[in-house]
């Protein structure tokens, strides 16, 4: 049987397509290693054994694609050439032939994956932008290749081999490959597999189940590695034991089982389909006299249109009666339906969301386009070459209107894409019905048509052109797949730098009930118009070159397309700013080289801020006119000042004034050399005017989102700042070495000496916005009025950190009074479901915190909902106001009994920040600062959860945070809670919650609260900024000495 194997290998390697596939595998592998290498943790190198194993495991999913493509040429070779009956007539043994055929199929697939991994290794070691371990260890790459590559290839090839031999149907093999990927991804979501759940916690049982059922082994790999330290992950491979061993052996046994059944099903003969009994009719000779007449012919627009419709009908009957479309429809409904359910259910960590049209439309936009494009690659190729495959094209091409066949194909493509889109929208409506959400937002579903149907049509028309140019069906299919991969997937961003040329890609951006898709919808439409003009120009050029006639109408059509393309392209690219990562890195390096000396130079402190902010939501713009009172709170005279203004802002004016010394500044980064130095305790002023506007071509910043409705701006980040900005520094070690930058600025150690500097400010904000909107600032609302068609609001706050924000939207409002404190909730009128529960929990939180920690600093608490265009938090607290995003608090279906009370969690956590982190306690920015804000807020959140739902429910939340901590700690160097910071927030949030709850059980909740109250009284503003050990000392003071060692151990 050896000749069969070697003949398969030799024949495969003789094909030009094989070398093309090899080049593609090598290119993808190198690109993944060079650009997409993943560092799973900050302290893990990208070539660490754990990281390599993770990447190889992920890349093993490509085996599905490799094996499916190979199956067409290897497993159906004899039947395609009508050679199977000849082989059947030879004395070759069926079993031996089948085993050798599988062996060659397996080896060729594994060879493709090996090329991918080799290129990945080369790309990984060619890059210099990521952290790398020293040296090269072959075993670190061979081990995961054997663990994932060999085993998963055996599995995929076994399944496809069985399907191919059992049913002898190429389409079914292709559907099986696609179904294998979809079912795997869906099953991983619903078993909460670690690499799908991301930061979501899992129970031990869930981890064990996903480790056993994960056919590609990734869950078992993560489960086996969960107790490894960061050093063990960096230096050694994950042990091949326990669940990983069981999983891999189990998959191997399953694979051999599929091979056994595939060999049993193998046959040289085609599948018996039964025979139609034919009746014998005696032959009779008759002489018939039939009159002969000439049929008249007409050639005018009506007959031309009827011919096009006829071609279209032929395609439609073929498509909608085919099993292929039924299978594709079922797959799409299953896959997208599971994604819809997952986005609604949100797993065990997050609450169930309402099945709104916007949520489901986002799910369709994120998942449908990729599969829809892949489906159209197949169907366009199939319908175009169908007449050639049947031999009917010889007759068909003699017809006068045969050249209009491509118009008929276009019509059938439009109907097919429309059908698939309608299927997705229908499924979304069914989900809304099943989850009892009756409000249908047709604007959201119109976006589904724009972001999916239209680009799919453009892609299909372009693929039709590709098929028209190609000489063979297989060549056309291969080129179509390359077009799909290069132009319709995220890979296009690396190939095509100009965004207007990426018109064949979809949209996976945000949707908000405040403003729909915002300006992105119109921008996307302009790009679609450009794509339509360009593809139409291609069609005209192609038909012009193939036609012997040079009609003026074609020239006019071509020129019209070019004009339309120029207009639409320029509209889409309006305001485009090209982002060059290398230039940005160089700019940041030059900033550090030029200005790092200011890190040790005294700089003025802002003491008062007056700001007039004009919001223009309709044009996505705002203007700032402001002034600072700055003061030298250092012990040395300041003779030079470094001033920073964000480069995205238009600098209208910037003026420094100190007595008679005046400096007008015209650059975003400026050094001001003072003629008369600013003496200690002396003051000066800085007046400034800035403008900002963003364009959809460049995208919006999540924390600087000025929108038509639902704006949110962390605006203090964009005000002028003094001194050296360490946040601009580059963290990449290799780049720093190449630029001669030395060590990056480290966070101030916990043990460093305290320096008392009062950097709190007085804030006065006057905000104007559109006539139908309410603007929310920071602090207390003093007054509001309307003038010249605009609403004005004035906010003030005393003694707060330099941290303030602004929001603006068309709101519904509800207010209640709680012991003299006004609780006000501003929300989208559609999102009224949880408002009363939010107010009730705010009452509870205020009562608990006032009773146990001290008085509240303001006369009101304002909750403001902001749009889904802002991401990065569920809620964020500023003095007197809490901003919350729409998709978490206001869209959570907390009426479901199985849901956790996310409103209680967020209200408790964010209200607690009024004591821990907004204006009462402002920790010194050093190691441990996050413990004094987030850990204490987490503790307060847990206590409030206990009061609302009981201790047992609270302990379930604590157990969940313990799981999060256990899962994260293996990726970072072990650190004390006393040193928790923004680089390891899992410590502050999850370990902090566990430690402080355990501490309250150890010394008592009342004693712990007493320590917190004393800590707040002793270190609250304007006293010295506290550090984490200050809190520890206060806790030790109120606790029994027998508990001191236990307390110290908890914080370590």
TrEMBL record:
TM ranges: 17-34, 54-76, 102-122, 142-164, 171-190, 249-272, 316-338, 358-380, 413-438, 444-466, 475-496, 524-545, 552-573
Family annotation (InterPro entries): Peptidase_M1_dom, Peptidase_M4/M1_CTD_sf
Pfam families attached to this UniProt entry: Peptidase_M1
Keywords: Membrane, Transmembrane, Transmembrane helix
GO molecular function list: metallopeptidase activity; zinc ion binding
SUPFAM superfamilies in the record: Metalloproteases ('zincins'), catalytic domain (SSF55486)
Signal peptide coordinates: none
Ranges where the Peptidase M1 membrane alanine aminopeptidase domain occurs: 855-1040
Protein name: M1 family metallopeptidase
């Amino acid at each position: 049987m050896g000749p069969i194997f070697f003949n398969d290998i030799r024949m495969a390697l003789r094909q030009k397509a094989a070398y093309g596939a090899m080049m593609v595998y090598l290119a993808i592998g190198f690109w993944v290693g060079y650009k997409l290498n993943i560092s799973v943790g900050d302290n893990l190198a990208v070539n660490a054994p754990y990281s390599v194993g993770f990447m190889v495991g992920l890349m093993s999913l490509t085996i599905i694609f490799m094996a499916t493509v190979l199956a067409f040429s290897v497993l159906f070779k004899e039947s395609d050439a009508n050679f199977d009956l000849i082989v059947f007539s030879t004395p070759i043994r069926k079993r031996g032939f089948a085993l050798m055929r599988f062996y060659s199929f397996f080896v060729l697939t594994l060879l493709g994956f090996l090329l991918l991994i080799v290129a990945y290794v080369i790309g990984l070691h060619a890059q210099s932008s990521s952290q790398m371990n020293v040296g090269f260890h072959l075993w670190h790459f061979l081990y995961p290749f054997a663990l994932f590559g060999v085993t998963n290839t055996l599995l995929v090839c076994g399944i496809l081999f069985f399907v191919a031999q059992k049913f002898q149907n190429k389409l079914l093999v292709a559907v099986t490959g696609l179904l294998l990927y979809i079912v795997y991804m869906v099953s991983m979501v619903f078993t909460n597999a670690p690499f799908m759940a991301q930061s979501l916690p899992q129970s031990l049982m869930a981890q064990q189940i996903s480790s056993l059922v994960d056919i590609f082994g990734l869950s078992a790999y993560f489960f086996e590695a969960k107790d490894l330290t960061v050093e063990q992950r960096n230096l050694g491979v994950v042990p091949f034991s326990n669940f990983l061993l069981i999983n891999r052996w189990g998959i191997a046994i399953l694979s051999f089982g599929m091979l056994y059944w595939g060999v049993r099903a193998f046959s040289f003969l085609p599948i018996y389909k039964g025979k139609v009994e034919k009746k014998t009719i005696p032959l009779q000779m008759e002489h018939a006299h039939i009159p002969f007449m000439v049929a008249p012919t007409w050639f005018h627009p009506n007959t031309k249109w009827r011919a096009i419709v006829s071609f279209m009908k032929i395609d439609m009957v073929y498509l909608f009666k085919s099993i292929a479309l039924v299978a594709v429809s079922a797959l799409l409904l299953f896959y997208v339906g599971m994604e819809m359910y997952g986005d609604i259910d949100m797993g065990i960590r997050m609450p169930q969301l309402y099945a709104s049209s916007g949520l489901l439309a986002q799910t369709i936009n994120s998942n449908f386009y990729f599969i829809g494009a892949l489906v159209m690659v197949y169907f366009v190729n199939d319908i175009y070459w169908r007449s050639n495959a049947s031999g009917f094209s010889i007759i068909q091409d003699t017809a006068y209107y045969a050249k209009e066949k491509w118009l008929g194909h276009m019509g059938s493509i439009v109907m097919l894409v429309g059908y698939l889109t309608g299927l997705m929208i229908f499924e979304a409506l069914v989900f809304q019905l099943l989850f009892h959400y009756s409000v249908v937002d047709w604007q959201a579903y119109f976006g589904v048509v724009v972001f999916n149907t239209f680009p799919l049509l453009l892609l299909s028309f372009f693929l039709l052109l590709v098929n028209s140019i190609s000489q063979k069906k297989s060549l056309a299919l291969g080129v179509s797949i390359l077009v799909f991969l290069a132009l319709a997937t995220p890979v296009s961003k690396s190939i095509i730098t100009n965004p207007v040329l990426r018109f064949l890609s979809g949209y996976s951006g945000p949707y908000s009930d405040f403003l729909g898709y915002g300006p992105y919808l119109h921008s996307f439409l302009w790009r679609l118009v450009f794509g339509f003009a360009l593809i139409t120009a291609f069609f005209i050029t192609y038909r012009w070159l193939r036609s012997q006639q040079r009609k003026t109408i074609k020239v006019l059509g071509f020129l019209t397309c070019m004009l339309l393309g120029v207009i639409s392209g320029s509209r889409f690219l309006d305001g485009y700013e090209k982002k060059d990562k290398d230039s940005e890195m160089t700019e940041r390096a030059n900033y550090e080289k030029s200005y790092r000396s200011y890190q040790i130079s005294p700089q003025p402190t802002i003491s008062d801020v007056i700001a007039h902010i004009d919001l223009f939501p309709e044009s996505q713009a705002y203007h700032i006119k402001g002034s600072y009172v700055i003061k030298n709170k250092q012990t040395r005279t300041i003779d030079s000042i470094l001033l920073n203004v964000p480069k995205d802002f238009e600098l209208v004016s910037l003026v420094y004034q100190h007595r008679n010394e005046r400096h007008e500044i015209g650059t975003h980064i400026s050094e001001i050399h003072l003629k008369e130095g600013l003496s200690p305790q002396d003051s000066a002023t800085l007046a400034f005017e800035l403008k900002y506007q963003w364009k959809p071509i460049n995208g919006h910043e999540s924390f600087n989102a000025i929108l038509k409705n639902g704006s949110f701006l962390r605006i203090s980040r964009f005000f002028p700042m003094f001194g050296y900005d360490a946040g601009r520094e580059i963290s990449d070690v290799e780049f720093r070495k190449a630029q001669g930058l030395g060590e990056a600025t480290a966070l101030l150690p916990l043990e460093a000496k305290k320096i008392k500097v009062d950097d709190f400010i007085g804030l006065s904000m006057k905000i104007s916005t559109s006539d139908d909107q309410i603007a929310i600032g920071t602090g207390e609302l003093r007054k509001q009025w309307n003038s010249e068609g605009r609403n004005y609001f004035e906010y003030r706050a005393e003694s707060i950190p330099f941290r303030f924000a602004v929001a603006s939207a068309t709101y519904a409002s509800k207010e209640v009074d709680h012991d003299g404190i006004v609780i006000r909730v501003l929300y989208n009128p559609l999102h009224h479901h949880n408002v009363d529960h939010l107010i009730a929990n705010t009452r509870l939180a205020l009562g608990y915190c006032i009773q146990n920690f001290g008085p509240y600093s303001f006369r009101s608490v304002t909750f403001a909902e902001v749009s889904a265009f802002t991401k990065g938090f569920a809620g964020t607290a500023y003095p007197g106001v809490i901003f919350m995003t729409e998709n978490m608090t206001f869209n959570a279906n907390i009426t479901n009994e199985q849901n956790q009370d996310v409103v209680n969690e967020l209200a408790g956590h964010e209200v607690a920040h009024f004591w821990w982190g907004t204006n009462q306690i402002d920790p010194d920015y050093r190691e441990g600062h996050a413990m004094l804000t987030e850990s204490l807020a987490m503790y307060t959140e847990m206590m409030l959860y206990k009061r609302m739902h009981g201790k047992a429910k609270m302990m379930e939340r604590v157990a969940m945070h313990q799981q999060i901590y256990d899962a994260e700690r293996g990726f970072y160097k072990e650190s004390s809670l006393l040193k928790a910071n923004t680089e390891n927030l899992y410590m502050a949030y999850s370990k902090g919650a566990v430690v402080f709850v355990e501490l309250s059980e150890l010394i008592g909740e009342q004693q712990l609260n007493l320590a917190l109250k004393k800590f707040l009284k002793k270190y609250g503003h304007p006293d010295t900024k506290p550090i984490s050990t200050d809190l520890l000392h206060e806790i030790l003071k109120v606790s029994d000495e027998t508990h001191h060692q236990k307390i110290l151990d908890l914080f370590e």
